From TrEMBL:
InterPro entries from the UniProt entry: ArgJ-like_dom_sf (IPR016117), Peptidase_S58_DmpA (IPR005321)
Pfam families (alphabetical): Peptidase_S58 (PF03576)
The entry's keywords: Aminopeptidase, Hydrolase, Protease
Sequence similarity: Belongs to the peptidase S58 family.
A single MF term (Gene Ontology): aminopeptidase activity
Organism: Halobacillus dabanensis
UniProt protein name: L-aminopeptidase/D-esterase
PANTHER family reported in the protein's UniProt record: BLR5678 PROTEIN, D-AMINOPEPTIDASE
Signal peptide: none
Amino acid sequence: MNEIKIEEIEGFSFGQAESPDGLTGCTVVLSKQGAIAGVDVRGGSPGTRETDLLHSDNLVQQIHGVFLSGGSAFGLDVGSGVMRFLEEKEIGFDVDITRVPIVPGAILFDLVGRPTMRRPDAEMGYQAAERAYLHTSIEQGNFGAGAGASVGKALGRHHSMKGGIGSYACQIGGIKVGALIAVNCFGDVIDPKSGKVVAGLHKGGNFLNSEQQLIEQMKTTSTNRFSQNTTIGVVVTNARVDKPQANKLASLSHDGFARTIRPSHTFVDGDTLFFMGHKDGGACDLNSLGTLATICVEKAIINAVRHASSTPGFIAARDLHKKGEKE
């Protein structure tokens, strides 16, 4: 298994945009020729657009892009900007009088202490789509949909840390697989190799273990935890898949969430994962493809928090670890 850049996977292009204050943004994945896609929504508080059309029994067989956005439900407006850009390029589902771009997407909650902040909108979506069309490189950490992301929120924002967006891709033979994940989870991010917390719930520079805190709070605490959460992402491959297979592969890829985020798929997360492949790509064993996709999701999540930089109110993993070393 050779590590590659996700931009090396043919048939896909990537673009990101952030607000002027750098505290929210969106990420767009385009497929100019159309991609076979599926989705699996596992979280209890999802915010999504056009995921129903990805069900295996529905008509549309190909999509032309996926967007990931901050801004909570306001961020769904990003999809309109992506559609407008693609229509101008005559990319979309042919309905005789025009081409309708098919652009599903998902949002995460990053409206933390800034109710009047700029939210990702159609113009930001258009900008990210334009950058994707020009085949720009993906930046990890505080970019795109990961700009305002944070992790580890069982005790509120003052004990949470900076999240972000991360990518990882690999190649075996002619098959390439990659994941792009915006990490904004309620739980902790765990390195599955070492079992150690990389970023999450902390106090005084020490990690507190979100799962244990939830268990201890069970009999004594009643809280409204609906804020700041949701991890969203997309897996892309040049392998050949059909629509039912893409949906199953999206489901299998969620194992990467469960291995690195504890707890994951909670009532207050909207965890959503898209899978995009090709109808004319290379053939491969689907179980092997699902395994590679899961590994890519794991590594993309770890990359997201390791590349993140501290912002006001949220310390990043790299800075917390440095602080611990000094102490």
